[in-house]
Amino acid sequence: MSDQGRQVTSAQMADAVTSGIGGTRGVLDSSIPTAVFLVVYIATSSNLAVSIWSALGAGVLVVALRLVRREPLRQILFGFGGVAISALLAAWTGEARDFFIWGILVNVVYGAVFAISALIGRPVVGYAAGAFTGDLSSWTGHGPARRAAMVSTWIWAGLFWLRVAVQLPLYLLGLVGPLGATRLAMGFPLFLLAGYLSYRFMQAPLAEVALLKKQDEELADSRVENPVSTREDGEPG
C-alpha cells in the first residue's frame, strides 16, 4: 500500500502522537536512566551524586546503542535530552525529587496542548495520524473520523493530566521512591495503552476516509481519460 492511506498500528499511533518528545522510543530510552537513578538512589542510601552520574551513564549507553543501530538522531536526542535536563536540575538544587520535575512539567505542557486542541476543534491526534498516513487533513471533513480524533485527543490529554495528578503530590511531599516508581509505571505502558485506544477509535474512520479519497481520485481520473463532450455555444438544445 502506498504511503497515502496506509494503515496505522497502535504502536505507530503512540509514536506519532508523542513525536514531540521523541516518540515511544524516546519515552522508553528516558525510562532506563530513570530506573537506574531510582535503584542507585535507594541502594546507596540517598547518595544523589552517585545516582545522577549513574543515570547519565545509563543514558550515554542507550545513546551509544542507538547510534550503533543507526536509529533516528532526533529520537536519541529527545530521549537523552530529558535525562540530561533532569540530572542538571537535581544537581543544581541538591534535591533528588527535582530529577522528576522536568517530566512533570512536560506532562503539564502536553496535557494543556492536547486539551486546548480538542476544545478549539483541532484535535492533535487527528493531525498526527494524518501526518503518518500521508494525508494530513482529509479526515477533518469526515464526521466519524473527526469525532474519533476528538475522543482520542481527550484520551491523551487525560493520560498527561493523570500523570501530573499522581506525581505532583508525591513530588511536593518529597517521596522520591514512590515518585520514581509511579513515573516508571505510568510511562511506557500507559503510552502504549493510549496508543492502542487511539488506534481502536481511529482505525475504521481513517480507512473509510482513505477509501473515499481513492474513489474520488479514480472518478477524477476516469473523467480525464473520458471527457464528456460539451455543446458549442449557440448550439440548439
Main sheet attributes: strand count, strand direction, barrel closure = none
Backbone structural class:
mainly alpha
Taken in chain order, the helices and strands follow as HHHHHHHHH
Q: Indicate the overall shape.
A: elongated
First-to-last CA distance: 47 Å
Helical fraction equals over 70%
**Rg (CA only):** 24 Å
Instruction: Report the count of strand segments.
Output: 0
DSSP strand (E) fraction?
A: under 5%
What quaternary form is this?
A: single chain
Number of domains: 1
Low-confidence stretches: 1-5
Round the mean pLDDT to the nearest integer and report it: 84
Counting DSSP H or I runs of 4 or more residues, the number of helices is 9
Can you describe what's shown?
The chain is an all-alpha fold. It has one domain. Helices cover 76% and strands 0% of the residues. The longest helix is centred in the last third of the chain and has 38 residues.
Structure, briefly:
The chain is an all-alpha fold and 237 residues long. It has 9 helices and no strands. It has helices at residues 10-17, 23-43, 48-68, 73-93, 101-119, 124-133, 143-173, 176-185, 188-225.
